[in-house]
Amino acid sequence: MKKTILLLTILAFSLQTNAQKINWISLNEALELQKAKPKKIMMDVYTNWCGPCKMLDRNTFQNKDVADYVNKNYYAVKFNGEGNETVNYKGTSYGNPNYDKTKKNRRNSSHNFASTIGINAYPTIVFMNENGDLIMPLRGYYNPNQLELYLKLFKDEEYKNITSKEQFEAYNKNFKPEFKLKKD
Q1: Peptide bond into 123 cis (omega under 30)
Q2: Strands 87-89, 124-128: pairing kind
Q3: Coil, strand or helix: which one is 92?
Q4: How far apart are CA 147 and CA 126, in angstroms?
Q5: Coil, helix or strand for 166?
Q6: DSSP-based three-state secondary structure for 130
Q7: How far is CA 53 from the centre of its chain?
Q8: Residues 113-124, mean pLDDT to the nearest whole number
Q9: 40 with 129: CB under 8 angstroms?
Q10: Who contacts 177 (Cβ-Cβ below 8 Å, separation ≥6)?
């Protein structure tokens, strides 16, 4: 019995240490860091009540390959689309004046910044360029291989060469995912 408990403890610890973490920061921090070291931003816009948001965190963002790639190539931002954080973006301060702290884990009012950039579904992954300009919002849940396509498309600026649906479909068809689907 003691050996079984010890084995389970070791196994649980090894699984926990193998899970990779993305270095999440606020949008304000990312925009400030861009001034000294320009880098694209990948922003996870979530809510506390959103089931697919939790799946994205668990299944995609904790994937070792995703975390390594994002940490190396992007400033990773976590932003609660219904939270009360103040965001300073392009000379304007955004908040959530109708935020109700009693609804912290339920549907709440939409944050003004989320509304300004057109977020109306969760999760949404927003990509921004090195100047903090919006590239594209990506709505919904994506597994590691699905997200890999977009991470590389934007990082390598291939999106600038795609001007039609047919060109994107060809890019997608020829894309060879490299991320492993397991977390470890």
Answers
A1: yes
A2: unpaired
A3: strand
A4: 12
A5: helix
A6: coil
A7: 10
A8: 96
A9: yes
A10: 144, 145, 148, 149
Express each pLDDT in 94-118 by its tens digit: 999 999 999 988 999 999 999 999 9
Return the DSSP state at 74.
E
Q: In this model, does residue 17 exceed pLDDT 50? A: no
Strand-pair category, 74-80 with 24-25: parallel
Q: What does the pLDDT average to over 69-92? A: 97
Buried b (16+ CB within 10 A) or exposed e, 13-50: eeeeeeebebebbbbeebbeebeeeebbbbbbbbbbeb
pTM, full prediction: 0.86
Instruction: List 77's β-bridge partners, or say none.
Output: 25, 43
Question: Could you tell me which residues come within 8 angstroms of residue 63 by beta carbon, excluding any fewer than 6 positions away?
Answer: 20, 144, 179, 180, 181, 182, 183
Confidence band, pLDDT 50/70/90 cuts, at residue 20: confident
**78: helix, coil or strand?**
strand
